[in-house]
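User: Sequence in, structure out. Go.
Assistant: Echoing your sequence, followed by the structure tokens.
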Amino acid sequence: MKEEETHCGPSPNRIPTTSDLKIWATELGFDALGVADIDLSKQKKSVIDWLRAGFAGEMHYMKRNIKKRLHPELLITGTCRVVCVRKNYLNEKANPKKTLEQNEKAYIAQYALGRDYHKLMRKSLARLASRINSSLGYGHYRAFVDSAPVLEKPLAQKAGLGWIGKNSLVLNKEAGSWFFLGEIYTNVPFQPSDREPNSECGKCQACINVCPTDAIVEPGKIDARKCISYLTIEHKGYIEDQLRSKMGNRIFGCDDCQIFCPWNRDAQETRDRRFEPRHNLDNSDLVELFNLSEKEFEVLTRGSPIRRVSYDQWQRNIAIALGNSTPSEQSIEALKDALGNVSDLVDDHIRWAIKKLSR
């Protein structure tokens, strides 16, 4: 691929149509594709305001390279189009509501039950880029999956893949929201998708009403500091007492705003068996997971998105979930046995859990 060519003028060969790109994307396992231009000027104010309000919490990387987030041509010189793809991940046998209702079970976000999507998506995107390059014979192409300052949701909306819902996720009439997004930045002037979909959320506030910690402060705006996904994954330290009891049995991520969204009643399921649950993680007992040694945790999470958290975070999160479970001799014994044999961070959350279970 010719990285030095950064112009965005007419191609010397016929530029593949969006239909061509969609066919190639489908052959590579993607469920949808669209093309966006790079004008993100409408997003600037909301992004800056969100950061200034402190809603990013400890995600300091969100503040870095903000100009490159808002101007794709600064991230990769010469970029004038973004090819956006969607890949479904919901397993056909998934029953997230059932797991949430069983408070002795561990709830892990659906996207994290199978193989780590980052490498899988990037590999497929690279193959798509190679296919485009072979057809055209020129251009630069860089694939991204949560790996750079990319405003993937506004770009996906511009590419026609859906609208940004009140839960801040991209929603699609046919597919719902259980999907991953990926992008290819390029200097090839593909025809952008016809139009951005209008919001179909209407007056519905299901996601806002169901959020356990009231993290959706207004439609489309999340205070990450309250979000259970943030608390269980991005936040490294002590979790505030008033938030702990609201976290239920969610030990890695949270799906409530998707589970109860009407557009997910008939959501599309994945065709990729690599996203099927591994190691019985969709039906694991909290005590069983809490008792894992650090070595066992590393084996369990090898090749999994769960590797995003440390062993301390893992135990911290499960201690909270045990504190929110129905008291049992087994759970209290597991907590007491660990007390004093773990980090100060985990000890604090264990003491909270034991006190809660002993009331």
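User: And one key feature?
Assistant: DSSP finds 16 helices and ten strands in the chain.
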